[in-house]
Predict the structure.
Amino acid sequence: MLLIGTLSVCCVAAIGFGLLFVFLSLHYLGMYDSIDTAFDGDWVEYVFMIGLYGSMLIAVHGMIVMRRSIDWRGLGLRAFNFRQIRHILILVGLYWIVMIGSSLTGVVSPLEQLIVPTQLNAITVITMLIVFGPLTAVAEEVFFRGLIHRWIRQRLAAGHGSLASAAVFSLAHFYFIDPGGSSGINATIFAALFGLLAAHLYERTSSLWPGIAVHGCHNMIFVTISIIKSLG
């Protein structure tokens, strides 16, 4: 049974990372920009991301939920104790203090890794907020915390497990390849910090919802900053 569970997790992980690899390969080979230009701006990226995250959720459902009789609640989509909200807000506040402080001091600049739209209208703004907000948050928290972190925690203690899953989360975004350089290093560092935050929230509450809420708000703040910069 343990072997079946391990194989299922590995298969779902392979699907998720494989789709990410395809996305990055298109970027690296220059094919992505050509396709994006041919099909009117940013829509190729939005459609691809919807397909990517939709496929990840379908893979989790088909290979984990159905085959192992683990429901979505078992993966972490369960209610949590709202008495813990103060602890959550303190942690999130500390994370943003570190992020903003790093940007202001020039130590690292996570705001360099912004999503810059090529064209801006009401439909584009709404699509960006939905795709990079709730859709990304739900898919990535289910995949990286509900699946990957949960699997790692069955083998490692809480501290080591959180560090390991945060490293997987950070490296899986491939920022060190695209955009690479100092911007990529900055983004990788803050992705790891966010991975630690999300893993701790999951450990503390036994629920994915706090991480999903924080993740979605985090991404939508970045999208909003990107839109404001584009207007300027």
